[in-house]
């Protein structure tokens, strides 16, 4: 995928919808994707088929408006990042296929990470700090901070009349279990 990213067309900063955006020259993307249909027909078909909007999904202008040359004609198209991604996804070329596979692999890896993350049982209303930290992926929190946090959460719960449950432990007599909402409010920041 590194080769794909390095060869990807370089974005150009252009004003679109009142703000400067990084846009991709449509002709550069066309060449990058290795398309063989005529550029003018290709871009017109894309815009019509996928209902892309001028000044929302892309910008147009004359060559003289931009300090670039465009062998395809006098009209230049610059695509937003979102439109560029969509065009890559629907392109029926080798590069388009590589792009789709890359995104599929990203999604697979993301789902795999989510599934390997500890899940809090949904039927419980109270959790230990350690269970919550593991669930949130914050396992690098030192034990000292955990103890300090336990004192803080215990005080908050007692001051506000919130029930703290207890769990037997091999290392300690009992471990406090705090309501999910309290843990979220004080740990998920």
SSE blueprint and pairings:
Elements: H1 2-7, E1 12-16, E2 19-25, H2 26-33, H3 39-49, E3 58-62, E4 75-79, H4 81-90, H5 94-116, E5 126-127, H6 129-136, H7 143-159, E6 165-168, E7 174-179, H8 180-187
Antiparallel strand pairs: 1-2, 2-4, 3-4, 5-7, 6-7
Helix pairs in contact: 4-5
Gyration radius, in Å:
27 Å
Q: What is the helix fraction of residues, given as a range?
A: 40-55%
Mean pLDDT across all amino acids? 80
How many domains would you count in the coordinates? 2
Structure summary, number of beta strands: 7
From the helix content, strand content and strand pairing, which structural class follows? alpha+beta
Strand order of the largest sheet: 1-2-4-3
Low-confidence stretches: none
Measured distance between first and last alpha carbons? 34 Å
Biggest sheet statistics? 4 strands, antiparallel
Strand content: 15-25%
Order of helices and strands: HEEHHEEHHEHHEEH
State the shape.
elongated
Q: How many helices?
A: 8
Summarize the structure.
This protein has 189 residues and is an alpha+beta fold.
Textual characterization of the structure:
This protein is an alpha+beta fold. A hairpin with a 2-residue loop joins strand 1 and strand 2 (19-25). The strands form two sheets. Strands 1-2-4-3 form a four-stranded antiparallel β-sheet. Strands 5-7-6 form a three-stranded antiparallel β-sheet. It contains eight helices and seven strands. Helix content is 48%, strand content 18%. Helix 4 (81-90) packs across helix 5. It is elongated. The protein folds into two domains: 2-114, no CATH class; 126-187, no CATH class. The mean pLDDT is 80.
